[in-house]
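Exercise 3.2. Students should predict the tertiary structure of the chain below and write it as structure tokens, then compare their answer with the key that follows.

Predict this chain's 3D structure.
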Amino acid sequence: MAHSLSAKKRVRQNAKHRIINRARKSVLKTAIKDFEATAGGGDKKAAAGQYKLIVKKLDKAASAKTIHKNKAARLKSRLSRRLSKTKG
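Answer key:
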């Protein structure tokens, strides 16, 4: 258990950021699943719109250090390839 005031404050901050980071990751995962479903259905125009939103969310999460910038780049690359393979 933390004893000093600064250590106690750090524990409070970590708990707060953990909740925020989990929420951001959850939003990303949901958006990616929706994109996969749309791309699998063959609606390229809708998938392209979703891809644009996902890229924005990934960049925000990476800049907030919720996820690593290389992970964001990797996911964007994979989703971009998935979009280009979509028929329609």
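Discussion points: Residues 5-41 form the longest helix (37 residues). The chain has one domain: 23-85.
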